[in-house]
Write the structure tokens for this entry.
Amino acid sequence: MLADIIEVTTADGITLGGAYFAPRAVANDSSIDALCFFHGDGGHFYRSLYLDLGHRLAELGIAFITANRRGHDIVAGGAPGGPPKGYAYESVDESRFDYAAWLEFLAQRGHRSVAIGGHSGGAVRSVYAQSKEHYASVRAVVAVSPGEYNHEGVVALHGDLFADTFSKAEREIAEGRTETLYKPGIPWGSTWTAEAFVDCFNPDGRYSVNQRVLETSCPTLFVFGSEECAGPQELPVCGAAMRRLRSANHPHVTVEVIDGANHGYQDRDAQLFETIHGWLGTV
């Protein structure tokens, strides 16, 4: 199935690209008629996993946007004349404006009952944005492999390496060097400015999925791979998120774990699609 390559502009002037998969005119068992899906940290909308998911859902009557957020790639352009963006410079809080722009596009295409979601850092942003904005058209959230951005929990997982990096970043901010770049290798391999690192893992837990999910006010699906939660391919913050969400057992939350899947869902993309599509049929 072909997709339309599209662009939107956020309220603060940042142009974002994406791909829209129009739904086939077939019976749709779900009340959801479109899913807007954000990529992981430092990624982009055209990853094959997301394009394949869009193709499969659209074939079964659910429109799909695989969408860039302003944190696409590590460094990217921001608003004209403004500072750079890309993941290194992104705040999770800004995802509210990115989703709003894409939801406006979906409204223009006639979609009135929408899910938002994402993979990895995009999943964190979907939970956060809905918890803050309660978008009128959003009826569900689909969060695939989010990490748990709980400061004390990350210290427990990664010890002095994380704690020391965080303290250094705080000092850089205090001395006016907010754009000093860090690549500590934990909690995952990426690059942050001092400002973005402190914002992301702030001790106030502002982006903790276990805290934010309390306020999504709609059915919320979390999907994890078993291999990212334990074993040699483990991503500790994802395992922590899964275990805490399962333990909490919130009535509006569903937690699914796909056996044999790692963080990228290599060779488990069909199972990921089946899990998401099956759950959407219950909404």
User: Anything to note?
Assistant: The longest helix spans residues 151-174. The chain has a mean pLDDT of 96. The CA atoms of residues 128 and 212 lie 6 Å apart.
